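Researcher: Please predict.
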Amino acid sequence: MSAEPAWAPRPARRDVYGRRRPTLGDPTPLACTVALTAIEVAHGGDGIDTLLRWVTPEVRESLARQHSIARRTGSRGGTEASILRARACRVSRGAAEIAAVAMIGSRAHAVAIRLEDLAGRWVITVLDIG
């Protein structure tokens, strides 16, 4: 066990080619943008293709399933969503978790997101909409 405090600066990580990579910045703006789009998609709106770069295939499949169910029940989207509040917690050097409260229409939803540093960018590995 190290006597070094947990908040002490650490050296930059290295990528697969041995080059130094700085630790990624705050993921909250990305998480809020993805949460807004995900809420709209889960309520039958379009936009799932805009998330391809930022989510894993498993998250995309889950959103596509929710989108399909919403469309079959007659929901076509069009209702604007907004983020009321978001809290970020860096759980490790390469991972962060975001808890957000989103409103779509008159309903509030809890959104939980886990982001991981994959190849030098934030990628959403878990997205749960309550």
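Model: Residues 57-72 form the longest helix (16 residues).
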